Amino acid sequence: MKIMLDHTALSINQLRDNRWLFTLLGVLCALVAGWLIGSWGVMGALMTVGVPVGLLLMVGILVEPKLGLLVYLNLSFLIGFTRFLTVDIAVGTGLDGILVLTLLSTFLNGKRMNWKRLRQPAFWILIVWLSFTILEYFNPEHPHPSSWFYHARSFSLSWFLIAIVVSVNPITKNDIKVLCALWLVWSFFAALWGFKQQYIGLEQAELRWLAAGAEKQHILWGQLRSFSFYSDAGQFGSEMAGITLLCLILFFETNSWLYRAVYICLAVIAFWGFAVSGTRGALFVILAGFPTYLALKRNLLHIFRALMVAGPLLALLLFTHIGDSVYQIWRIRSALHPTEDASFIVRLENQQKLRNFLKDKPFGAGIGTSSGAGQRFSPNYFAAQIPTDSWYVQIWIETGVVGLTIYLLMLLGFILIGTFKVWQLKDPWVSTMMIALLAEFVGICVVSYTNPILGQFPTSTILFINSFLFTTCDRWDTKTK
Fold first, then answer.
1. How many of the other CB atoms lie within 10 Å of CB of 127?
2. 3-class DSSP state for residue 219?
3. What is the pLDDT of residue 159?
4. Which residues of the chain have pLDDT under 70?
C-alpha cells in the first residue's frame, strides 16, 4: 500500500512539474480555436468542436466496430443537413471513410468475429454483383471512367463493406433493438421537420436550395412537397411510407397495449409525413410490403383481418373522390391512376428514348454516366441528359440489360433467402422483427421503380444493413439451440 501511495504522489509531483507544458498546450489550442473561428466563422467553430470529437470517435470505432456502424447510420440521416452549410463538404466521402474505418476495426478485432458467416448464400450473391460493377469500370462505352467511383459506391461497394461488418460482428438482439430505435427516432423527427416545412415555413437555406433548381420538383400547383432533411421529397415520402408499414406490423404483432399505442401513433405521424411529401409512388411501399408481411405470416386469420381493413380503404381511393379537396389525399389517390398522369407518360417516353440508345449496349453506357456524376463529368453525353426517375432505369442506363438482370436477380435472391430463413425461425421476437424488415425491404424495392431512392442516404444504409440482418437471422434463433 505504501508503495502505491508513493507512486501516486510521484505522479502528482510530475504533473505539477510539467504544468508549464499543459499551460502551453492549452494556450496553443485556444489560439488555434480563435484563429479557426475568426477565419472560418461557423465552420471554424464546428471544426474546433468536431476535430476532438472526431478523434475520440475514431479511437472508439477502432476499439468497437459496432460503434462505427451506429455512427455511420446516424450520419446517414444527418447528411441531409448539408444544405444548411455555406461551403461544400464531401460528406459522402467522410461516410465512406467511417465505413472503411469500421471494416478496419472489424479486422483488428478479428478474434471476436465469426468469419464463417461470410459463407452465407446472400454474401456470395452480392460478390457476383460487386464483381460485375468492378468490371464495368472497363466498359468501352464509358466517356469518363473516373466517374465510375461516384456511383459504384451506392451500387455495390458500400453494400459489400456493410455486408462484411454486419455478418461477422457479434451483433445481439439488443443491438438490433438499438438500430431500430434509432431508425424510428430519426424518422419521427423527420416527420416533424416535414410538418414544420408544410405548415410553418421553410428556412432560408431550404429556400436557396429550392431556388437553385429543386423548386421544379418540389412546388407543384403552388403546393410544397415537403422533403424534411432528406435528399428530396421522393425519398422522404418513401421513407415515411416504410416507417408506416414497419409500425403497422409491430402494432399487429405486439401484445403490449402501451407499445401498440406508441406504434399506432408513430404510424399515423409517419403516414401524414408521407402525405405532405406529395410522393404518390411511395404508396406502393405499403401496397407491396403489407401483403408480403401477410404472406410471410402464413396465417389465414391475419390475411382475413387485413383484407377486411385494406379492401374498403383501397376501394375508397380507387372508386370515389372523397377527400379530393385535400391536396395530399388527391395526390395519394392519383398514384392508383398512373395512365391519367402526364408525368408518368413522360417517363414512358424517356424510357423509349433510352431503349433506342441502349439497344446495341448490353452492358450499358458505364457506371457514372447518368444523372448525378454523369451531369458533372460528361454533361453532353446522351445518358446524362435523360432524367432517370427510377433506380432501376439508372441501373439499366449504366450497366445495360445484363447488369439490370443481375441486379434484379440479386434482390430476388435476398428476398427468397430471407423468406426461407424467416420461415425456419422459432423465436417469436426474432421472427416478428425479421418479417417486418423483410416486408419493408420488399416495399422499398418496389417503390424504387418510381423513385431512385435505393441508392440514396439514409435509405441505402438502412436497406444494406437490414438485408444482412434478415438473410442471417438464424443466428439469433436461440430457441433452436
1. 14
2. strand
3. 94
4. 1-54, 86-90, 302, 305-306, 309-350, 372-375, 377-379, 383-385, 387, 479-481
* pLDDT score of 328: 58
What's the pLDDT at 8?
A: 45
Question: Chain centroid to CA 4: how far?
Answer: 53
End-to-end CA distance of the chain: 49
Q: How far apart are CA 420 and CA 296, in angstroms?
A: 10
Alpha-carbon distance 1 to 43, whole Å? Answer: 51
Which residues lie closer than 8 Å to 141 by C-beta, 6 or more apart? 361, 363, 364, 365, 366
Alpha carbons 32 and 289: distance in angstroms, whole number = 53
221 φ, ψ (degrees, to nearest 5): 55, 35
Contact 277, 198 (CB under 8 A): no
Tell which phi-psi region holds residue 303, choosing left (phi > 0), alpha (psi between -120 and 50) or beta.
Answer: alpha
pLDDT of residue 128: 95
Taking CB atoms within 8 Å and a gap of at least 24, the contacts of 39-48 are: 42/86, 43/85, 43/86, 43/87
d(CA 124, CA 265) in angstroms, rounded, equals: 40
At residue 319, the pLDDT reads 60
Give the pTM: 0.84
- CA gap 370, 350 in Å, rounded: 13
Name the 3-class secondary structure at 77.
Answer: helix
User: How far, in Å, CA of 3 to CA of 9, rounded?
Assistant: 10
Q: Residue 379's pLDDT is what? A: 67
By CB atoms closer than 10 A (0-12, 13-18, 19+), residue 231 is buried
Give strand pairing partners of 223: 220
Cα–Cα nearest to 153, from 136, 167, 133, 135 = 133
Report the candidate in 108, 112, 77, 102 with the shortest Cα–Cα distance to residue 164.
102
Residue 413 pLDDT: 95
* Euclidean distance between CA atoms 134 and 47, whole angstroms: 36
Give the pLDDT of residue 73. Answer: 92
Report residue 324 as a C-alpha cell: 379530393
